[in-house]
Amino acid sequence: METSNMKNMVVLKNLPSNLVEEAIVILKSTKKAKKLEKIEKKSKSRKTIEPIKKDYILKEAEMLISSYIAKIEDENKQKKHYIIRKNKNNKRLKTYAILSSIIILSETILLILK
Fold first, then answer.
1. Which of 69, 75, 64 is nearest to 23 (CA)?
2. pTM of this prediction?
3. Between the CA atoms of 76, 78, 82 and 88, what dihedral angle is there, to the nearest 10 degrees?
4. Which residues share a beta bridge with 23?
5. Rounded to 5 degrees, what angle do the CA atoms 92, 96, 98 make?
6. DSSP H stretches of helix in 1-114
7. For 21-32, how does the pLDDT look when each residue is reduced to its tens digit (9 = 90+)?
8. Residue 110 carries which DSSP code?
9. 3: DSSP letter
10. CB 27 within 8 A of CB 69
């Protein structure tokens, strides 16, 4: 395999499944994700019984990959939230340090002048 093709591949190992041991995901190149669109439910809902298909292994692999991607996205959201909260706390601490140093400096100047 060429190294240029390997850049667009991800190998997932140690998946929590009894059927799938590892999965190889090949990413599309130069494709953008579509915008989210709201799909409205149809008013008529019919229950149809479909015969059991034998592609359950493929469906389980798809389910594992989608849950893995969702978990990674959740971790990224948590990291971003943590960074935002940390920056906010740093700004508060910086303003507190500046204000307290101004107050201490003014008190010392007043004590010296008296």
1. 64
2. 0.40
3. 100
4. 12
5. 120
6. 3-6, 56-113
7. 777 777 666 656
8. H
9. H
10. no
